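Researcher: Next sequence.
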Amino acid sequence: MSSMSTASRLFTGEGGVDFIGRSRLWYWITAVLLVISIGAIGIRGFDLSIDFEGGTKMNMPAAELVVEEVEETFIDATGVTPEIVQIVGAGESRILEINSERLTTEQIDTARAAIFEEHQPLDATGTPSPDAVGDSTVSESWGSTITQRMLIAMGVFLALAFLYIAFRLEREMAAAAMIALLVDGVLIAGIYALFGLEVSPASVIGLLTVLSFSIYDTVIVFDKVRENTAGYLGSRRATYSEEANLAVNQTVMRSISTSVISALPIIALMVVAVWLMGVGTLKDLALIQLIGVIEGIFSSIFLATPILVSLVNRRKDTRRHNQEVADYRAGRADDVRGDRDL
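Model: Next structure:
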């Protein structure tokens, strides 16, 4: 009964959950996740796509091809063990992909001839042809250039996000939002390192997208916090922490609903574009967006506002106001006890 009552209050925005009072718990959970993520990044590192590291990708219609047999043929022909050989897509659109270190033109021609001779891949007309085996090569210098540009884009994004929030809201809100945003980035990166998910340019673009979504969600909550705490120093009715906690309760269902609605088209993208059409780039984009949306719920609800409250509570005027509220409530409690004694 009590759980239903709490859910009902959350749905109507009337409050009921002490998010801010459990800040220490959220901080501990965040700290553990950060340690795991940083450890995974430091120990396992990232599985970078050929767009970053450079390399050669060969692909062909999968048809009845067997991954293990094609991989063995590729190794025999080139003397190179591929990083990954996989089939993407479904039905007639299935594609067999081979990713390896950068090959010479001679190695590529030898691999194409060997694969055609052993497995007879079919071209678009359904005829066995060496041209059915496509290839693309990215140099190491191109990969380093892409990496540098991605890092610059990330830095510019973070700077613009900080300036926007600082101008739109308050200084402590900007600091809290940026801390939560950095935690988002580290945790998402940690997930990729921990589970060995491939990092491609599409993944980085998706990361910028989900970080933008996280900022949007945080700004929505902070805007409600600002509304609730306007003039709080002139009233002894509630502390900044209590008003901020009410703001989270009033916006939590909106955050969850927005995240669920955002996840639905991403899941549809993964099913249609990846499983049915076999578009690997869209898979990278959809996967990081799905991870980011789920992680963003935790960040906007359980982390950003507690950090904000911790920062504001360090101010002298807020600490003084907290004491005034406590003294006022203690005085009222004494008055009530006195009335009862009479």
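Model: Residues 162 and 174 are 6 Å apart (CA to CA). The mean pLDDT is 81.
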